[in-house]
Amino acid sequence: xxxxxxxxxxxxxxxxxxxxxxxxxxxxxxxxxxxxxxxxxxxxxxxxxxxxxxxxxxxxxxxxxxxxxxxxxxxxxxxxxxxxxxxxxxxxxxxxxxxxxxxxxxxxxxxxxxxxxxxxxxxx
Length: 124
Fold this sequence. Notes:
Residues 69-122 form the PepSY domain. This is PepSY domain-containing protein. It comes from Sphingobium baderi LL03. InterPro entries: PepSY (IPR025711). The chain is of the alpha+beta class. The protein has two domains: 5-59; 66-123, Nuclear Transport Factor 2, Chain: A, CATH 3.10.450.40. The chain is 49% helix and 26% strand. The chain has helices at 5-10, 12-32, 37-59, 66-76; strands at residues 80-89, 92-100, 106-112, 118-123. It has a four-stranded antiparallel beta sheet. Strand 3 (106-112) and strand 4 form a beta hairpin. Helix 2 (12-32) packs antiparallel against helix 3. It is globular and about 40 Å long.
């Protein structure tokens, strides 16, 4: 994910999405290396803060809740949701929903996180 960092200084949700997109793979790697319990506790606290910020944004109506996003995506592409991500792209929050279709293909549905508008459907 390539992002203009100046956009993320002013909007905490965009900073959150960027941090989650960049840190989660790193955190998974660090956890796999057996880093100390203190570092893991700090990582857990950061993850908890990120999730709390997302919940608060949903409660304020700034983001649609994940069950609604999943229903919109599955209405467009029937199948089982296998992965969801919240990302910041071009100063916009985007849900990416990967769906395993009945014929065994995986399709990715990109939706505007605020409105639920389907932006793109593509093979993954």
